[in-house]
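So, read this over?
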Amino acid sequence: MRNVRSSDGTSIAFDRSGQGPALILVAGATATRAAEAAISAHLAPHFTVFAYDRRGRGDSGDTPPYAVEREVEDIETLITEAGGSAFVFGHSSGAVLALEAARLLPSKIKKLAIYEPPFIIDDSRPPVPQDYVAHLNELIAAGRRGEAVEYFMTDAMLVPAEMVAQMRNSPMWPQIEAVAHTIPYDGTIMGDTMRGNPSTLRKWASVTVPTLVMVGGASHAFFHNGTQTLVDLLPNAQHRTLAGQDHGPADEVLVPVLVAFFKGRDNRFQ
């Protein structure tokens, strides 16, 4: 484990592995860098991989008040550590954070790949509640971390309540509760983009970096609709469906696509 200091002094923990051009992995809600270990190992023969704990998680620090811009600065600090420019891959809400980083750091991100940003741009699934982030913060402030995780899973991820009840008894539940206070961070990153309005994605129309937008062939329709809407907005984007995959794509399917895109081995991405 290594550490760097972000612009506001927050310590950001990361693992560095492999060799080749720098690739920064941006995890989704509740995930720590430990969750990136397997994919990092698959990518390490091709890239110098930076897997980091987003602020408030794992071994990284946290400095209130929260702002999305601080998380972009964390990515910028890692890019500086990597030599000044890097490829970036983001998953789920981490994909949206990576997209925002590409908007704010256009000269520092060479290529961007994102998998299933959870945009809700139509009625293909229910929107998240209007007070979603506020209610999460209320639960966290009251020390009801388990309820906050359950609310996130049922209302944002649409996990059936009976499945969440089973998860509460699993070994993973305490790990998720430990980072429950960061779930509102991801809700803040998503902003109004989970309310059924496609116009909320227009802020990223200025992102000109070559971008690969991926979705799983077995994923819910709203992921397909959101990613296609984003690709239609981005001036330099490609859309790729990974056959048979859902919101947690298999490394053996995802990694070859990332290598082909970032290293330019697929003519579709030139």
